[in-house]
Amino acid sequence: MEIKSIRRTNTAKLQKGSLTVEAACVMPVILLTLTGTLYLCFHVHNRAWLTSAAYESALCGSMEGIKKNGSACDAARMRSEELGSTGFFGTENLTTQTHVGKEVQVTYDLDTVSQYGSFSWHVRAEGRARITDPMKYIRKIRAAAAILKGREG
Predict the structure, then answer these.
(1) Which pTM value belongs to this model?
(2) Separation of CA 134 from chain center
């Protein structure tokens, strides 16, 4: 009887220690996965924000481009700098480029720095908008809709 109780005691002690070893092996993997997911979420957020800011800046410049004394390039550049000055987590080297021709193009470039050595993601967001007179454009759309309505009826 004594031999069986000694074996049970030793087996119970070994099982308690094995859980600690398993946790020590699995915890770094779990933490690496969680921090990687967190950095991926920040990357997606930064990209979505910069894409939206690029389109908004391009649209602001295109609306300014139809005015008599308006400068589409200056308006788009000012708006892009205003929207790009918002702090982004874990980023560096934010640059803005603005080009104006028949359309206004605003481009953001950004580097996302990771804590895992030299690994980094580059974000490039671009927005374009044609320089159009909104009143003329709306009138054309309404005229086309009236023509299509007349053909259907």
Answers:
(1) 0.70
(2) 29
Range 144-149, long-range pairs (CB < 8 A, 24+ positions): none
Residue 111 β-bridge partners: 92, 122
Distance separating alpha carbons of residues 115 and 56, to the nearest angstrom: 32
**What element of type H or E holds 2?**
helix 2-64
Is residue 64 a contact partner of residue 19, using CB atoms and an 8 Å limit? no
- Return d(Cα 84, Cα 108) in angstroms, integer: 8
Cα distance between residue 119 and residue 131, in whole Å: 40
Instruction: Write the DSSP symbol of residue 89.
Output: T
Q: Token pair of 5, please?
A: 């109780």
Query: What three-state secondary structure class fits 86?
Result: coil
- For 59-72, the pLDDT digits (tens) are 988 888 777 777 88
